[in-house]
What does this fold into?
Amino acid sequence: MSDLYLFNIASQRSHWLSLRQETITSNIAHANTPGYAARDLQPFESVLQSSHLAMQTSDPGHIVQSSGTLETLAEAEQEGWHTYDSGNSVSIEKELVKAGDVNSAFALNNSVVKSFHRMLLTSAKG
Amino acid sequence: MIDPLNVSQKIAAAGLDVQSHRMRIIAENMANAQSTASTPGGDPYRRKTIVFSNDFNEALGANLVGVEQIGNDQTPFRVERNPSHPAADANGNVKYPNVNILVEMADMREANRSYEANLQMMKQSRAMVLSTVDLLRST
It folds into this structure.
């Protein structure tokens, strides 16, 4: 069953999407906090590629590089639309647009998982 | 590890809490826009301000928003001449609060908008959790 890596990718993606949702919520909650810089996650593509390049260890002394689930999701500071005098760079409109994207991507991801699961069940039941 | 979607709902809840606190301060300022002192020559109501802070919560592993301090606005009071007023000083001047209704209204709009945005995030996170739970249903 090693060819069926779709569930793995789907779960990575939903994890990434929920972390992004958390980051966006945090940005919105801090929309009026002085000195807060808006943050965002690395794009999913780069997370996925870095997770494919995880190194194998052949010796117990080797340092294991993480396979890129949480650690590679470092939050990169992003360029905001504008910055207020108080040093806050959150734009509520921009964050809500991103939240809408996350929401529809999550729905799509879940539908793909659902239909793939249905296909799997069909073939398993015969 | 706590599910990020639950954490996101908690962050949004903290945001809602902070914005409603801000709304309370604004309401206090508006209600006291004409509150003078009760003694002759005394200071009237002083406008209150609210400052938010970025607190790290160890249990959640996330940055929640909180109230840093509730301060007093130090701008000078508005002075009007009205010798018949009970709070008038020896020269007949009365000090009125340093509250500007227009500033408070603008602040209220902003609080309102931020509150709605937080509420929207909460709804969306909830919808995402529910759509994941829906995977178990049907089929």
Remarks:
- Chain A is about 55% helix and 5% strand.
